[in-house]
Amino acid sequence: MEKREFSPWKWQEKLSYVQAVEVKNVQSTLYVSGQAAVHSDGTSSNADMRTQLELAIQNLEKVVTEAGYEPKNIVRLTIYTTSTDEFIKNCFDIFQDFVAKHGMKQAVTLLQVVALNETLKIELEATVVK
């Protein structure tokens, strides 16, 4: 697999993403459903967004690795949240740590939604290649 990132500007670097990702000679692609703060017994977390983001990341990492892929090869990540303001002010460091931990270079879209299932505040949807 060949992967190239494109960012004609530098400002997005401090936000831990790139403007575009090109992937060639892909062996396979994994489309991951939105991963949220859902415990292994299927119950939704009612914790604050910061705690929920940590669990959603753990769930995303688990799905990706158990499918035989690596988080570093996430090329597209969509973040759904009930408050972009809260995400940016209170959770962005967790997101940046996740990206740095895996050396990810991914395209990102952050969306505020009216609601997520039950008590959920954040959900992560990914595309992964190998």
TrEMBL record:
InterPro entries: RutC-like_sf, YjgF/YER057c/UK114
Origin superkingdom: Bacteria
SUPFAM superfamilies assigned: YjgF-like
Protein name, as recorded: RidA family protein
